[in-house]
Amino acid sequence: MSIRIGILTSGGDCPGLNAAIRGVARAAYQTLDAEIVGIRAGYRGLIDGDYQVMQQSQFSGILTMGGTILGTSRTPFRNMRVVEEDNVDKVHAMKMNYRAMRLDCLVTLGGNGTHKTANLLAKEGLNVIGLPKTIDNDIFGTDFTFGFHTAVDIATDVIDRIHTTAASHSRCMVIEIMGNKAGWLTLYAGLAGGADVILLPEIPYDINKVARVIDERARLNKNFTIIAVAEGAITVEEAAMKRKEREAAQKEYEFRHVSQRVAAALERLTGVESRTVIPGHMQRGGSPCAYDRVLSTQFGVHAARLIKEGRFGLTVALKNGTIGENKLSDVAGVPKPVNPEDQVVKAARDINVSFGD
Amino acid sequence: MSIRIGILTSGGDCPGLNAAIRGVARAAYQTLDAEIVGIRAGYRGLIDGDYQVMQQSQFSGILTMGGTILGTSRTPFRNMRVVEEDNVDKVHAMKMNYRAMRLDCLVTLGGNGTHKTANLLAKEGLNVIGLPKTIDNDIFGTDFTFGFHTAVDIATDVIDRIHTTAASHSRCMVIEIMGNKAGWLTLYAGLAGGADVILLPEIPYDINKVARVIDERARLNKNFTIIAVAEGAITVEEAAMKRKEREAAQKEYEFRHVSQRVAAALERLTGVESRTVIPGHMQRGGSPCAYDRVLSTQFGVHAARLIKEGRFGLTVALKNGTIGENKLSDVAGVPKPVNPEDQVVKAARDINVSFGD
Amino acid sequence: MSIRIGILTSGGDCPGLNAAIRGVARAAYQTLDAEIVGIRAGYRGLIDGDYQVMQQSQFSGILTMGGTILGTSRTPFRNMRVVEEDNVDKVHAMKMNYRAMRLDCLVTLGGNGTHKTANLLAKEGLNVIGLPKTIDNDIFGTDFTFGFHTAVDIATDVIDRIHTTAASHSRCMVIEIMGNKAGWLTLYAGLAGGADVILLPEIPYDINKVARVIDERARLNKNFTIIAVAEGAITVEEAAMKRKEREAAQKEYEFRHVSQRVAAALERLTGVESRTVIPGHMQRGGSPCAYDRVLSTQFGVHAARLIKEGRFGLTVALKNGTIGENKLSDVAGVPKPVNPEDQVVKAARDINVSFGD
Amino acid sequence: MSIRIGILTSGGDCPGLNAAIRGVARAAYQTLDAEIVGIRAGYRGLIDGDYQVMQQSQFSGILTMGGTILGTSRTPFRNMRVVEEDNVDKVHAMKMNYRAMRLDCLVTLGGNGTHKTANLLAKEGLNVIGLPKTIDNDIFGTDFTFGFHTAVDIATDVIDRIHTTAASHSRCMVIEIMGNKAGWLTLYAGLAGGADVILLPEIPYDINKVARVIDERARLNKNFTIIAVAEGAITVEEAAMKRKEREAAQKEYEFRHVSQRVAAALERLTGVESRTVIPGHMQRGGSPCAYDRVLSTQFGVHAARLIKEGRFGLTVALKNGTIGENKLSDVAGVPKPVNPEDQVVKAARDINVSFGD
Fold first, then answer.
1. Min CA distance, A95 vs chain D (Å)?
2. Which residues of chain D approach chain C closer than 8 Å at the C-beta?
3. Sheet holding C314-319, edge to edge
4. Once rounded to an integer, what is the mean pLDDT over residues D175-203?
């Protein structure tokens, strides 16, 4: 008798989702007597019973495609911390539909929110396997998530293009890179793009120290400065505030984008013309890079292997370069911020990149 | 006796400047007994007598490089319309240095401001030839300027990447494309990127009509809308104001970027989540595309031909697909806005792209 | 009553086919009361009556896709010059199916072979409109075909990458670019990529003159040479042969690829290590560049306009930069080789590019 | 007193060399009182005493550049295994020049040949540190070499473009990817590009089994097949021969390229039209990808750290995701072929990719 595998993608879209779906499906068809059930728009489809039994041909030609053929939606719970009545109803609905769809197991592709829900369902007795996707690279227990390296490529290309114009116009250019809580993307793209300053959520910055970098470069006849700033970068002053207090303060800003605040402050402090670039959502769009296609495929295949072995309550991971898995309960809800002592941070410091601290 | 050719690049940087410089130089060395004098940082170098006699090897390997090996600066005059004393002094300085450098002629690469100054110098008796560069494509008398198609490629790539994420999140995405006075770049990139709405400086928009496009698409189950808006796009209301009045009004805006104003208004009118992408200066950076390399080279070579033939006071142009030239006096100060009846606008309208009018 | 429009793509695949199909369809739906009939795999589908009535949604999201959603096949006739019985039968079948499908007109997208057949059908009384696609740019009466500039971009990128390795290894690199009868692609990519030598079918080369370029560069301490050679490039000796004689001779060659013959001869003549790169079919794959998307869309829209105006027996064209049309009978069977006096050839010669002649 | 660091690049060129050089230099200037001596054209410059003391500014702007600013050459020894008189003389010359240049240590960037020579010099008492570069990824003891992921990106892009044309023409496309001894590049690009068959030097193939894949796909109405073949892929029959015997046989082939042999054989066996694409040296050209820029920088910085700590006779490595080092004597001369049990091979097999075995 065939194994019936449900699959869904949840949370923000991300390059490599389709490649990972294809990996699960092709490996399942090849190594198991499998039937794949595509659940639409993330957990919402599981709650509403919105699904279709997939044909093998539906997984053809999707390796290179951005987005997700299954659709996605944000986490189904308004507040994961409080198990309100509403949440209880939703969990119940998901359990009922899991059975109604006659699933033997469920593969969920997503980020931190997705993993929390996956863990919840596993605790309720469903056979769940997670796959870690996000351009933020902030899922605990895996070297890299898929989608991350594609986003690094895109953000690096932006910085590359800015270099020419920065140099010829003697400007300070501030490039705002995605990442509200984790600065991995800004760190890697900043280093790859040759940024002079990298500002991360994990390392609060002093704007005066950033201004000093510009002044110092001017003294060395370097007429331009490139600053890579994460969306969630904060000043030393903001870091001292409580979260709510900080968020309230930020709402009052004239400029909603951190890059605009940084540029305005630097122009005031140094007198150097400062401009912003905000590539925004283009960082999560388009075809996955080769690295992410290989990683997504390996992750998908590994999920199929775990299913074959009857091992559930796990999430697939790259651990010191080797594909493996972690317990969902060990990963769900655990953040993975940039460690200020991380080897990439230290390499950047050694070549005189400033973190504004 | 050899011909001594001065060359300078002026105004905003632009892909293809180095390719055009190389075209002038290689053709001059090949077809004339030429010596090339590189003037630094645009007209400023001519005013200050800052130059070097170039070696042939300095033009090797620059075909693919962004920026300009000669450096650039903005137009040397604070106000071109009034010939103030300061201007007179600068023009005098340029004439003196032209002679001090023993130039037989001067090739100036730049946009509208550059052409005005070139025309001024030509009237003063200098042998001047212009080359039309700008990503805005707004120089009168040429089918295309070099730099334009590269910028179209970059902006189109941004829109491409946005499509995936717009679709998967059911959003309205507003992409702000360079172009304060002319909308060519937004028009071409918008059409190439499959934008649903294109907003140009030349065609004032009614935000309610834009909102209606979103509603109409929703009715057809199209859950996302892509809007390409030029930096200088204006509403019907703004178009009715005088320029100074409008600029004063725009300074008061909470949002400095037009895309932010458009997105905020649409979110209010339609209830659809709306986000902005502001690629900014990345649109003028990096290596020129193949089209621009060919065009820049042809332009540069044609300048050398005009020099050989002793024809000056001209600017090189692509006229109905053929390389030719125009009189500087016919081009200087003449804008080239998008004609609302342009064939590309009409093609866009025929496939149901809205211009918000 | 609605107009019923048949559409087919024929000949080799080419970037921009889907963009042009979309242009026809969206403009027809928007400006006419149209119904679109998609004919499968080119004329073969017309002969076999293999078609489907398209839904409007099938034209969504195809602007950026390579290939053709309708499928393609080579020209249906073994020998277009002789109207054999077989041909007569096929033409008869196409006329019958045109009526059976209740078409009001037929839009054919293709190259020279496609246009010949389109003209044949027009003579038989069908309402036919052609659209000129090919990466070879060799269709008479249009400035450019769509697909050409995308292929130029790809081939230029190949040459760019080769530069680094050529320089660091002091090699002669021979890059073979598509184009059996017409050298446009090699000419543009060669010039854009900074090739030192460009060998075209239209300008027979003398291998000794090519060798002399390598020697001359060595004298100037330029340690590498880049040669762009069209698939169909021929030597002066081959040019003197009759076609059959030449083809027989070429079959005997140890090396089937012209680049391999050139590289082997140059290594023998100069002693400089010579290597080949044969990118082949990658030059016709992938998403169309922005230029081709705009051009394809304009072409498609113009076809819809001609339908609206009831004008047939025409093929759409870009004429001196303006979208227009030519008579099918004026275009069918007329080649468009590179004129050795073409402005791009002359520009290349002026910057010291050798054509080996 | 300052530390004097010699640096050279040796062997085939590779993306990331300049990024790594910059990493060494910037970290050395930043963390040590260093002087950098650039040795020209690899070991040849050490033998001939061809070098220059570098200025700090020479390391600016090179992060993104392909090739190497120092130049390169192949390994200086005709036969590393036999220490002939000629070799002895060369080693002696290198030692003498190391002293004449007053070097405190020498950093060598290269592949397997470079590491052998580095080890030889270390045994002679010089302070040597190696950096592992190669697109082949075949250096023992490091997860990845720099240059590899860039080459994977390029080769994957080639396969992507081929997909469209393969599908529309119902062809078998054979793409020949660099790698004579190691198949890593073909393995990763093949998997990332969605190849149906991957042929590697490490897994001898049976052409009949490859033909069967094509037949099997035809049965499933998949009208095209993509084959990624490494330059050094061999048949089961060739694998049974001795190396010299095999090389003699291969010289006799009508087709010098393995892809041409494979395509011809498959066309004969299956009747399906088969074509080759040979991207060749474009796989090692151009700007390094973001991954390689980060890795190269980390490697360069780590070399500076080892110098600071006075630790020599080592080569930098990525070990299970962490930057570290190995003994030169443990790495030199040790190959790193693809293990047929490698996790990527197994993932590929699980999604039904054939290795022809």
1. 30
2. 12-13, 66-68, 71-72, 154, 158, 160-169, 173, 254-256, 260, 275-286
3. C51-53, C34-39, C3-9, C105-110, C128-132, C314-319, C322-327
4. 97
Using the predicted structure, report yes or no on whether residue D82 has a pLDDT greater than 60.
no
**Does residue A14 register a pLDDT over 70?**
yes
Q: What is the pLDDT of residues D232-263, one digit of tens each?
A: 999 999 999 887 888 777 776 666 789 999 99
* A282 vs B12, B67, B161: nearest CB: B161
Residue ranges matching CATH 3.40.50.450 in chain A: 3-146+288-331
* Chain B residues in contact with C289 (beta carbon < 8 A): 153, 289
User: Which CB contacts under 8 angstroms, 24+ apart, belong to A38-41?
Assistant: A38/A7, A38/A8, A38/A69, A38/A70, A39/A6, A39/A7, A39/A8, A39/A70, A39/A101, A40/A8, A40/A70, A40/A71, A41/A70, A41/A71, A41/A72, A41/A73
- Specify the fold of B3-146+288-331: Rossmann fold (3.40.50)
A342 is catalytic: no
Chain B residue nearest residue A74, CA to CA: B169
Q: pLDDT by residue (tens digit) across A328-355? A: 999 998 999 999 999 999 999 999 999 9
Q: What is the ipTM of this complex?
A: 0.95
Q: Where in chain C is the domain with CATH 3.40.50.460?
A: 149-284
> Positive or negative CA dihedral for B132, B136, B141, B147?
positive
The fold of the D149-284 domain, in CATH, is Rossmann fold (3.40.50)
Average pLDDT, integer, range A133-148: 97
Phi, psi of D5, rounded to the nearest 5 degrees:
-110, 120
More confident residue, D127 or A171: D127
Tally A–D CB contacts below 8 A: 120
- Strands of the A34-39 sheet, one edge to the other: A51-53, A34-39, A3-9, A105-110, A128-132, A314-319, A322-327
The verdict on a CB contact (< 8 Å) between D352 and A301 is no
Q: Closest partner residue to C26 among B287, B289, B352, by Cβ?
A: B352
Average pLDDT of the residues in D207-226? 94
A16 close to A288: Cβ distance less than 8 angstroms: yes
Q: Are C268 and C72 in contact (CB under 8 A)?
A: no
Which chain D residues have a beta carbon less than 8 Å from that of C251? none
Low-confidence winner among B113-127, B167-181, B295-309, C183-197 (lowest mean pLDDT): B167-181
Residue of chain C nearest D281, judged by CA positions: C162
Give the pLDDT confidence score for residue A166 in this predicted structure: 82
Taking CB atoms and an 8 Å limit, are D279 and C275 in contact across chains?
no
Structure tokens at A317: 């991971």
For residue B169, list chain A residues with Cβ-Cβ distance below 8 A: 12-13, 72
Minimal CA separation from C306 to chain B, in Å? 13
What is the chain B residue with the closest CA to C194?
B63
- In this complex, the chains that touch C, judged by 3 or more CB pairs closer than 8 A, are B, D
CATH top class, domain A148-284 = alpha beta
